[in-house]
Design goal:
Radius of gyration: 23 Å
CATH topology: Alkaline Phosphatase, subunit A
Number of strands: 13
Helix content: 25-40%
Largest sheet: 9 strands, mixed
Order of helices and strands: HEEHEHEHHHEEHHHEHEEEEEEHH
CATH architecture: 3-Layer(aba) Sandwich
Length: about 475
């Protein structure tokens, strides 16, 4: 069933989001998609209980996750060691875990501890797929393969939109945005569900919902000479502006502009007030780009009740993962930053008492090649990701290890570009199911999900019952 109209409440919300989107309170650029489905919710999301938030951590550049999480079984490790050559991490340098099935990069001690505590899971060999693909199908049926598979810009867009069977130019909304379209009704305030701490992205814009970008250090920008200004005349300016806004224009465009301005101003003030009132969460290493963004996410989550939020979707990003050269020192720095940022965020959520209500997950353009490229690696395909939170059935591995063999059954050719065994559609659907989306609506959020088995409907056991 497709709705042929928007309710008055939906229209008002959409107007408020658009106003924020174009105001000083929002820096994200984008336009409403005129092509694609106008999602009609099958579930009753206005009555969703409790609070839940998804936090997307996007690792820009294509993360070499093969050197973040390594199989511990001796035969598989030897296969990994041989395929990676000089890039391989020495077995005695890796961190063991209680599951005895995975070894962690030596810089991921904090994440290993969260894994051992049961609040972090690893999902293996995930990637951008239209349908399941074998080595033979890759080589002989290019129509079954996502376009521009190893190009950063195209894969960032396709991964964040997750509708790779359609030309990317035809699909304006991301899968986070399509979720937000459905979950808008869970929130009783006028603010959107989606917030970015890393400027614009393809993940969050929806067909109805509009994300707000927030400066991770200072929060939303208030209006010059009206808000938070030491000039004593700012109160007078604000009073004068209020008198002007009290006038009731007759022109519909003027009416919309007036309402949009008021919504943008009031929402910026509300967000700023919540962030300023957030509790002290301890010292922060502001040189850590990821930790800084995630700390702002935690501060916003602390104000969820004041903002009347029951469902929120956040986006943070960490660049620099395109390790074509000088990989070892670069990956050391990146993995250290990832570990510190996520561990600090986990600690903050525990302190706020919302660890069970927030799920954080990583994804990237693609994985990297097994083979060495001088002193780095090339663009690959499948990769390993993590999911963190108190609701996660952690201390476990999901999916399967690939065959770490150059030219093997999981390699597209002879460079160690590994074919994913799990689709991003399945990965995202498990996260969306935890957020409360119905199976039928998940098929709208992820149109290519129909091409895969129905295991996502039980979330692959990724979350605790």
């Amino acid at each position: 069933m497709t709705k042929s109209y928007q309710s008055r409440r939906q229209f008002i919300k959409a107007g408020a989001y658009s106003a924020l989107f174009g105001s000083g309170a929002a820096a994200v650029n984008g336009k409403m998609s005129l092509i694609g489905s106008a999602l009609a919710a099958q579930g009753d999301y206005a009555s969703l209980p409790g609070y839940k938030a998804l936090v997307c951590v996007f690792l820009y550049g294509g993360s070499d996750s093969f050197n973040l999480f390594v199989p511990s079984e001796q035969g598989r490790y030897q296969q990994y060691n041989q395929a990676r050559g000089q890039l391989a991490l020495a077995q005695n340098s890796l961190l063991s875990s209680t599951s005895l099935s995975v070894l962690f990069n030596p810089n991921l001690a904090g994440l290993r501890d969260i894994y051992d505590a049961g609040d972090l899971a690893i999902v293996r060999n995930v990637g951008n797929l239209i349908q399941p693909v074998t080595r033979n199908e890759y080589q002989n049926h290019p129509e079954r393969i996502p376009t521009e598979l190893f190009a950063h810009n195209h894969q960032q867009e396709q991964v964040q939109k997750s509708w790779s069977s359609r030309p990317t130019g035809l699909v304006g909304a991301g899968w986070g945005g399509r979720m937000a379209d459905l979950l808008m009704e869970a929130n009783s305030g006028s603010l959107p569900p989606s917030y970015s701490m890393n400027n614009s992205n393809f993940f969050q814009p929806g067909n109805r919902s509009r994300p707000i970008a927030i400066n991770p250090l200072s929060g939303p920008r208030l209006m010059d000479y009206l808000d938070n200004n030491t000039n004593t005349s700012s109160d007078q300016r604000d009073a004068t502006l209020m008198q002007l806004l009290a006038l009731q224009p007759q022109n519909p465009i003027e009416q919309f502009a007036r309402a949009s301005f008021i919504n943008a101003r009031d929402s910026a003030r509300a967000l700023s007030s919540v962030i300023e009132a957030s509790p002290d969460l301890g010292p922060l290493n502001t040189n850590n780009r990821l930790a800084t963004q995630l700390r702002m996410v935690a501060r916003m989550i602390s104000g969820r009740e004041q903002l009347n939020m029951r469902r929120q979707i956040f986006f943070v990003g960490l660049g620099g993962w395109d390790t074509h050269d000088n990989q070892t020192p670069r990956l050391n720095a990146l993995s250290t930053e990832l570990n510190e940022g996520l561990a600090d965020f986990n600690r903050a959520l525990v302190e706020l008492g919302v660890q069970n209500q927030v799920t954080t997950f990583t994804t990237s353009d693609f994985g990297r090649s097994l083979t060495i490229n001088g002193d780095g690696s090339d663009h690959g395909w499948g990769g390993h990701y993590l999911v963190m939170g108190g609701a996660v059935n952690g201390g476990s591995l999901y999916g399967s290890w690939p065959e770490y063999a150059v030219g093997g059954s999981d390699d597209v050719g002879d460079k160690g570009r590994i074919i994913p065994s799990l689709s991003l559609n399945q990965y995202g659907a498990a996260l969306g199911s935890w957020m409360g989306l119905s199976n039928s609506d998940l098929l709208d959020v992820f149109p290519d999900l129909r091409n895969f088995d129905s295991g996502w409907q039980t979330q692959y056991g990724l979350f605790n019952a």
